[in-house]
Amino acid sequence: MRVSTRWTIAVLVVLVALGAAFWMQMRDVPSTGVAPAAGRDHRDADTPQALAAPRARAALPPCPPPGQGPGPEALAGITLQCVGDGTAVDVARALAGHTVVLNLWAYWCGPCADELPAMAEYQRRMGSDVLVVTVHQDENEAAALLRLAELGVRLPTLQDGRRLVAAALRVPNVMPATVVLRADGSVAGILPRPFSNADEIAAAVSEKLGQGAAR
C-alpha cells in the first residue's frame, strides 16, 4: 500500500472519530443549545438524615405548589429538589401563573450573600404580587442551608447543582444573577448583576416588566 493511501485512510479514521465524538456530545445538549454544568444536583453526603438539622435551622418555606397553566416553556421537564423539605419540584409547573423573580446564587459567593437579604426584603414588600424563588447552583446543599440560616433569609429555594435552570434560560455564567418571568411564563429580563438593596431590585424588576413606580 502506498504511503499516500495509508495517510488518506488514517485521516478518514480521525475524521470519523471526531464526528462521532461531536454527535455524542450534542446528544447531551438541551434544546436551548446551552449545555448544563457537569456534576450532580447535590452531594452523596447530603442525605435526608444529614440535612435534617440544617433544614430545621434554616426553617425555609415550602416551594410553590403547581400553579395554573404549563409554566415557562424553557423550564419544562426540569425537576429539582426543594431545599426546605426535600420534595421534588416540577419547576415549570410550580412557577406557572406567577410573576417570578428567580435569584441564582451559591453558598460560597460573597456578593450573593450580600444580595439575599435584599431579595427577602423585596419579597416582603411585594407580597403575593411577585414570587421570589432562589436557585442554589452548587452541589453542597447543606452549606446552602447553613448560609441561609446565617443570613436569616427564608425564601423558597431550589437545589440545582447542575445549573439546569441557568442553562435553560440562557443566563450568563455569573453569580448572582436574577431572571424576571412574566405570569405567562415568558422571560421579561435577565439581570446578571448584584443588588445592594430592595429598592434597586424593585426598580430593575419594574423596568423589565414595563410597570410604573415600584413599591
UniProtKB/TrEMBL annotation:
<dbReference type="GO" id="GO:0030313">
    <property type="term" value="C:cell envelope"/>
</dbReference>
<keyword id="KW-0676">Redox-active center</keyword>
<dbReference type="GO" id="GO:0017004">
    <property type="term" value="P:cytochrome complex assembly"/>
</dbReference>
<keyword id="KW-0735">Signal-anchor</keyword>
<dbReference type="GO" id="GO:0016491">
    <property type="term" value="F:oxidoreductase activity"/>
</dbReference>
<dbReference type="InterPro" id="IPR036249">
    <property type="entry name" value="Thioredoxin-like_sf"/>
</dbReference>
<dbReference type="InterPro" id="IPR050553">
    <property type="entry name" value="Thioredoxin_ResA/DsbE_sf"/>
</dbReference>
<keyword id="KW-0201">Cytochrome c-type biogenesis</keyword>
<keyword id="KW-1015">Disulfide bond</keyword>
<dbReference type="Pfam" id="PF08534">
    <property type="entry name" value="Redoxin"/>
</dbReference>
<keyword id="KW-0812">Transmembrane</keyword>
<protein>
    <recommendedName>
        <fullName>Thioredoxin domain-containing protein</fullName>
    </recommendedName>
</protein>
<feature type="domain" description="Thioredoxin">
    <location>
        <begin position="69"/>
        <end position="210"/>
    </location>
</feature>
<dbReference type="InterPro" id="IPR013766">
    <property type="entry name" value="Thioredoxin_domain"/>
</dbReference>
<dbReference type="InterPro" id="IPR017937">
    <property type="entry name" value="Thioredoxin_CS"/>
</dbReference>
<dbReference type="InterPro" id="IPR013740">
    <property type="entry name" value="Redoxin"/>
</dbReference>
